[in-house]
Amino acid sequence: RPAIVWFRRDLRLRDLPALLSAAATAPRGVALFVLDDALLRPAGPRRRSYLMRCLHALDDDLSGRLVVVRGDPADAVPAVAREFDASEVHVSEDFGPYGRQRDARVAEALGDVPLVASGSPYAVSPGRIVKADGTPYKVFSAYRRAWFDHGTRPPAHTGAETVEWLDSAGVKSRVPIPEPEDVTLPPAGERAALARWREFVADGLGRYATDRDRPALDGTSRLSAHLKFGCIHPRTLLHDLRDHRGDGAATFRSELAWRDFYADVLHHRPDTARKNYNRTFDAIEYDTGPDADALFTAWCEGRTGFPIVDAGMRQLLEEGFVPNRVRMIVASFLTKDLHIPWWRGARHFMRYLADGDLASNQHNWQWTAGSGTDAAPYFRIFNPTTQGEKFDPKGDYVRRWVPELRSVVGRRVHTLPDGPPTGYPAPVVDHAHERRTALERYGRIRTTN
Ligand code: FAD
């Protein structure tokens, strides 16, 4: 009897512990992916499209043997298991709130056929590292120390040849992999992820620590969407970095620790996908009503009159990506200059980001809003103009994304001393005034709690 390998957020064949466990039980395998509308609907066209490209790439690597079906996994997975008379179903463990309850339902529906989890999308799986008293870490620096001490396993030696994949042509419920929606995206899938990683190690890693905050330089790995869908595993990256010294490699490892940390936080507190981690912040006064809605729309469309904010928001719409520094600037602007709750911004990000990931997104938003684990202190309010001048000192990033500002020379693009050029809006708010308002509101909850 064959074993099923049910792919979810692990769309690769190398370094895949679930594939290794499948091979240990049966020499023949069935590669399965379920198109689950509960996940596809909220993903937005860019992430959906990225996923479809990954599936096409995986199917190519499996010589056309990927079985793709559509429906509720609690119906679809048992149906395929029956059709192949499978002995077991192997997966990488999903720690997200939806994934956990879906897998519980699927395990029950499978009856006698075990659902076996091996590995996860993380270097160190959520829940694995706890403090001496058994409670989860709440402060990143302490978590990171424990994360380094814990270490990671060496990569699993797997590939297309690890099992003999059964032909999927005759599967009754099989559907074609949908064609990707027509959006521009970088190449997707395992080969693309590995190629990008090698390119980054050769050209980017050495200057990563300094260039990562300079959005015009594209100094980061751009692996986030690949990591999101598991086209490459962080264990592979950490293994390749083991002999690399220097600030670039150290900073990069630390960023991977943030990814694991936020997954760990969400695992222990699934409520924080929607709610403040620090419930004191429930008392923060946010703006609502038609004026706030109009400001929110201006932010979404990149028409706030703050050049670095608008550049970031337009890059999000056009590319489905924003560099980390700019994500922090636009998030701070929404919550502290426009006084709009973080979850509205987080929802917009999740709709447009190709790398949109519940744990990383919601918790980075909460870091900015001040309500997260060891969040930015409430009085740390980014000035969008000085942030622009500091991190985009020549103004190239803003000119790349805001065509109306292309004729403005150098860093003046951040201050617009001659006023906004035709077609570009005046600032929608006065930063100094909004900063005071935010400080008052945040100060109030600190004194009353
Ligand atoms: P690199 O700088 O090359 O970093 C390598 C990898 O480390 C990233 O791919 C990512 O997996 C991880 N990483 C880096 N920074 C962080 C971080 N702050 N938190 C968690 N992991 C990190 N990242 C997502 O993957 N999905 C999201 O939905 C997401 N939403 C965010 C929302 C806000 C408001 C902010 C401030 C940050 C968000 N991030 C998110 C984190 C970070 O901005 C992106 O991971 C990073 O910009 C991706 O680009 P890169 O792959 O070139 O990163």
Kindly describe this structure.
Pfam families: DNA_photolyase (PF00875), FAD_binding_7 (PF03441). The chain contains 20 helices and six strands. The chain is of the alpha/beta class. It folds into three domains: about 120 residues, Rossmann fold (3-Layer(aba) Sandwich), CATH 3.40.50.620; about 110 residues, Alpha Horseshoe (Serine Threonine Protein Phosphatase 5, Tetratricopeptide repeat), CATH 1.25.40.80; about 170 residues, DNA Cyclobutane Dipyrimidine Photolyase, subunit A, domain 3 (Orthogonal Bundle). Strands 1, 2, 3, 4, 5 and 6 form a six-stranded parallel sheet that branches. Strand 1, helix 1 and strand 2 form a beta-alpha-beta unit. Helix 6 crosses helix 11 and helix 13 packs across helix 14. The longest helix has 22 residues. The relative contact order is 0.11. The model has no long low-confidence stretch (mean pLDDT about 95). Flavin-adenine dinucleotide (FAD) binds next to helix 9, helix 11, helix 14 and helix 16.
Chain-wise SSE layout:
Layout: E1 3-7, H1 17-25, E2 28-35, H2 37-40, H3 44-61, E3 66-70, H4 73-84, E4 88-91, H5 97-110, E5 115-117, H6 140-150, E6 164-165, H7 190-203, H8 205-211, H9 224-228, H10 234-240, H11 247-268, H12 290-301, H13 307-319, H14 324-337, H15 342-352, H16 358-369, H17 384-391, H18 396-401, H19 412-415, H20 431-448
Flavin-adenine dinucleotide (FAD) is lined by residues 212, 220-224, 227-228, 255-256, 258-259, 262, 323-324, 327-328, 331, 349, 353, 355-357, 360-361, 364-365, 368.
